[in-house]
Amino acid sequence: SAINVAEGAKQAQILASEADKMQQINRAMGEAEAIRQTAQAEATAIERIALAIRGTDGGEMAASLHVAQQYVEAFGNIAKQANTIVVPASANDVAGMVTQAMSVFSTVTANQKRHHKANNKLLDEGDGGFGSEQINH
Questions:
Q1: How far apart are CA 101 and CA 74, in angstroms?
Q2: What one-character DSSP code corresponds to residue 127?
Q3: Which is more confidently placed, 16 or 125?
């Protein structure tokens, strides 16, 4: 009968819609998991690098040199790729650029140490840095 056909078509649309919804949910959950895993891998890598820098004689100096090299290379790449660039006033002074890059690195390192001490203080106070609520995964 026409009612049974209409009801069947309705159910087919509902099932198709639910299947599409589940597909979107699964895709989003997969993407979220990939983001979580990437973030975890990056955090682990950063932690290992930090430990290597702190635990090695000359580690901070080596990191400073690496940052300075990347700084100089970045300006070189910009110059190759564009006809107009904005550069520091001392762009023709490589030693000055390296000094500037190392100064930036030193400032970032000092800020990180300050934040690390503040976070440790919060942890020592027993709230885990999260206030009264903690999020568990």
A1: 11
A2: S
A3: 16
